Amino acid sequence: MAAVYKSLSKSAKKVEDTENDNNTTTNGGFRKNKQRVLILSSRGVTYRHRHLLNDLAAMLPHGRKDVKFDSKSKLYQLNELAELYNCNNVMFFEARKGKDLYMWFSKVPNGPTVKFHAQNLHTMEELHFTGNCLKGSRPLLSFDLAFEQEPHYRVIKEVFLQMFGVPQGARKSKPFIDHVMSFSIADGKIWVRNYEIREVEKAKGEKDSEGNDIVPESDKSSSKKRKGAPNAELKDTDVSLVEIGPRFVLTPIIIQEGAFGGPIIYENKRFISPNQVRSELRKAKATRHNARVEQVKERLGKLETLTAQAKKEKDVLDTRELFA
Fold this sequence. Notes:
- The termini are far apart.
- It is built from eight helices and eleven strands.
- Strand 10 and strand 11 (about 265) form a beta hairpin.
- Strands 1, 2, 3, 4, 5, 6, 7, 8, 9, 10 and 11 form an eleven-stranded mixed β-sheet that branches.
- The chain has one domain (about 20-280): Brix domain (Rossmann fold, 3-Layer(aba) Sandwich), CATH 3.40.50.10480.
- By secondary structure, the chain is an alpha+beta fold.
- Helix content is about 35%, strand content about 25%.
């Protein structure tokens, strides 16, 4: 019987391995959500960009952080790099002029690719929020209702789901859900926040929403035990959200059909490049400077005309004229 049990267990193990290779579960036949994210940056990132990358890498247990990518023009090479590391998602931080940060979210190898301009970056170290969560825990993803109103927002939502959604049973992940990632849309921008789900047991003497006194759980359990009840009631807890960090704002620029290439299926016409904003500010400063220079020239011209008129109109009774 032992030999029969060993042979049956080996065959069952082989069947389970083949099903895992085909990305199917043993119960129900559904495909597993296998996601791996390659996280890397370009040359020229600042300390704030680097700390944001480290914070996001710590929040994604199914992510792999790689060294800096040298090229900024040949981004299609990231597809080969993702295939080399067995990743099907790429999060690329592109720094420009040591100031601007552009974030690329791509689905490898078939796309799509979304390019964002990141603003208002605040990392965990500088915020000092009281929220906390277990490293490697799975987050709840909360999306604004506006994500369902426009087609390009629906594409962005799906990319975020596959990028930030930690699959069940992923490598280095914990089987707990103790924080929420919020994605809200306001003024054409996507505001990203991270909150801890904090549950606090209500103290004795507090009242619920209906105005009734709350009985502590210890009293309930003791009364239940005295009455011989088989099951105890659930605990009365206050659920609140406490921000953890990081926080940043994303402005969508373009959506490409392929992975770091292909035709552009969406372009944000309202997006203004930070280079153009800086040039407009420089032009405004230049116009103010030119106006001040013109005012100085006019004042000097008036002084010259006044002195010339004074020289022409000589007084006969002037002492310099009388005793010349």
